[in-house]
Amino acid sequence: MALFGLFDKNKKKESLDKGLQKTKENFFSKLSKAVVGKSTVDDEVLDELEEILISADVGVDTMVRIIERIEERVARDKYLNTNELNDILRDEIAALLQENNTEELQDFETPEGHKPHVIMVVGVNGVGKTTTIGKLAAQFKARDKKVVLGAADTFRAAAVDQLKLWGERVEVPVVAHGMNTDPASVAFDAVKEGVESQADVVIIDTAGRLHTKVNLMNELSKIKRVVQKFIPEAPHEVLLVLDGSTGQNAMIQANEFTKATDVTALAITKLDGTAKGGVVIGISDQFKIPVKYIGVGEKVEDLQVFNKHDFVDSLFKKD
After folding, report:
1. Pfam families annotated for this entry (predicted)?
2. 207 marked as binding residue
3. What per-residue confidence (pLDDT) applies to 104?
C-alpha cells in the first residue's frame, strides 16, 4: 500500500489548515472590518458578527446560540474589548462542537466486538459519496483492514463503474450486479462476501436520490432488512455524505436524509473549495449527529477523521 501510506499528524494538520483557509480568510477579513475603530463589543459589533456567521453558513439557529452566549459573556464581564472577540468566539464554537460531537476518533478505527463492521453510505448525487467510499477503503486498507465494497447505487451506471475503479485502485473487492439491478440484492451479497472472507469492513454505496422521499425511505429500509439477515445488528453505521461547499443546501439534505433513515454519522466533503466551512458547526449543532470525517482536498489523505480541537485551531489560527 505504498500509494496510500499513513499520513503523519503534522501533514494532516497542514492539510486541514490549507483546506479551511478560504473560510478563515473570509471570516476574519469581515470580522476585522467589523471591529475597526471599536474598543468594546457593543450591539453594533454583535449585529456585524451575526451577518459574518450567517455568511460563513453557520445557519440562523446556531448563529443565535453563539450570539446569545457572547451576550452572556458581555453581561457577566461588563466590559469586553474587541481584541478578546476572537478568543471568545473560539471558546464558544469549541464548546458547541464539544456538546454535539460525542464521538472522538483518533484514527480510522472500527469498533471492537463485531466483524465485519458494516457501513451504509447515503447522500445525494454529486456530493462526493462514491469518492468518499473509495478514500475510506484506501484509509482502512492502509491500516491493514480487509475491506469489501458493495455497489448498491444501481440507478446510476457511473456510480457502479466509479466504485469498481476505486476497487481496482485500492485493491479491494467490489460486489456489483450492474445498473438497474436490485440494490438490496447487491448489499446482501456484499455482506455475505464480507462474512465469508472475514473482512473487517463492508462499505455499501446506495442510491443518491429516488423519485420521492418515500421511495428513498423504502429503498434504504429494504437494504437494512436484507443485510440484517446475515448480521442482525447491521448496518452498524449509516454515514451521510454532504458537500460542504453547498452551505445551507447541505443543511436541507441533512434534514431530508435524517427523516428517511437513522443517520449515525456525517462526512462533510469539499471544504477546501469554499468559504462556507462554518456549515460543519451548524450541521453538528442542528442535528446532534457526530461529524466523523471531513474532506479538505483531492488526495486520499485529505479525507480526515474529524477532530474538533484541530478544526477550531485551524479556523482561528493566526497566519
Report:
1. SRP54 (PF00448), SRP54_N (PF02881)
2. yes
3. 64
H or E element at residue 242: strand 237-243
| 124 labelled binding-site residue | yes
Whether 5 has a pLDDT exceeding 60, the answer reads no
Is 312 marked within a binding site?
A: no
Using an 8 Å Cβ cutoff, are 184 and 228 in contact? no
* Inter-CA distances, 250 with 22, 67, 127, 206, 262, Å: 18, 22, 9, 18, 17
Flag whether 178 is marked binding: no
Is 209 among the annotated ligand-binding positions?
yes
User: What is the spatial distance between Cα 137 and Cα 119, in angstroms, rounded to a whole number?
Assistant: 11
Residue 59 marked as a ligand binder: no
Residues contacting 1, CB < 8 A, separation 6+: 141, 142, 171
| Residue 130 annotated in ligand binding | yes
User: pLDDT tens across 162-214, in order?
Assistant: 999 999 999 999 999 988 899 999 999 999 999 999 999 999 999 877 656 77
- For residue 205, say whether it is annotated as part of any ligand binding site: yes
Q: How many residues does the chain have?
A: 319
Q: Answer yes or no: is 206 a known binding residue.
A: yes
- Known binder of ligand: residue 43? no
Residue 72 φ/ψ, nearest 5 degrees: -65, -40
Say if CB 145 and CB 200 are below 8 A apart.
yes
pLDDT tens for 46-55 read: 898 999 898 8
Q: What is the pLDDT of residues 92-106, one digit of tens each?
A: 888 888 887 555 666
Q: Could you tell me the three cell numbers for 290?
A: 457526530
Task: Confirm or deny that 282 is annotated as ligand binding.
Answer: no
What is the crossing angle of helices 60-77 and 85-100, to 10°? Answer: 130
Has 90 been labeled as part of a binding site?
no
First and final CA of the chain: distance in angstroms?
35
Nearest to 148 by CA among 180, 112, 182, 110: 110
Q: What CA–CA distance (Å, rounded) separates 214 from 231?
A: 25
- Supply the pTM of this predicted model: 0.91
Q: Report the DSSP beta bridge partners of residue 174.
A: 149
Query: Any known ligand binding at 273?
Result: no
Greater confidence (8 vs 251) lies with: 251
